[in-house]
Amino acid sequence: MSNIPSDWIKAAVAITPSFETTGDPYMGATGDFDGMGISCGALQWNIGMSSLQPMVKNVGKPVVKQAMPQFGEELWTACNSPIAAGLKVVRGWQQGIKLKPNAKAELRAFMGTPEMRAQQDIKIGEKAETAFKMASEWAANIPGGVPSKRSFCWFFDIVTQNGNLKGLTFKDVANFLEQNKPDKSDDFVCDFLASRTGNSGHVRDAHKNAELWRNKADGAKLELLVLSYLRAQLSKADFRHVVLNRKGAIAMGIGHVNSGERDFSAHGL
Prior knowledge:
Layout (H helix, E strand, L loop, with lengths): L5 H13 L10 E2 L8 E2 L4 E2 L6 H7 L1 H7 L4 H8 L3 H9 L2 E2 L2 E2 L1 H11 L2 H26 L9 H13 L8 H25 L6 H13 L5 H14 L7 H13 L1 E4 L2 E4 L6
Antiparallel strand pairs: 1-2, 2-3, 4-5, 6-7
Helix pairs in contact: 1-8, 2-7, 3-4, 3-6, 4-5, 7-8, 9-10, 9-11, 10-12, 11-12
């Protein structure tokens, strides 16, 4: 593994899962809110994308059944079946899109076992490697040429949630800053957020972020905020402000996401 500071990985693992779960990120367990059946652990590995199944198989059936005396046999079956069949199994543990309390408790206990924590660390390490490489390539365009904790956490979230930059480069950010001049760039981004319409929590977050971030971004924060805006514009139209809320909060170290106020200053952002 690259020489990634351990506190950087710790911060990234605390930040990225915090948008969806609370408490120990390794023990996260949510229901079928996104059509993936169940999503578990620090990076929300799931049945629908077949990202949870290999981890479960790696720890073995005895560990599963010991941690999940009521649902372990079914989880093992779900993880050794075609995706459609696996989804049917785990959806049987839910009321609507929410896990029933006893199923959630067992999933949390399983994800928190030493064996599953180790599996999660392996997967987190793979994401961290990719994020560090992307942050390093980004930093090569900046005086000093060294990635920052802020940029690493930003790219970790991109790798985990979005995959990649869809072809965006530092030159795109530089062009945006030149066209809008640095003192107008944050206004452009904040005006976009302020202009969102509707009654959803995401829209309310956007309006709050427009007020919170205006005239507060400079240097690396501004560059990452602009990158957040440009990457959001490559998402589906209905989700652009949602993506920007999230990425901008990491860029700025503070923001409103999923109807909650986030402050990442404790993590050095």
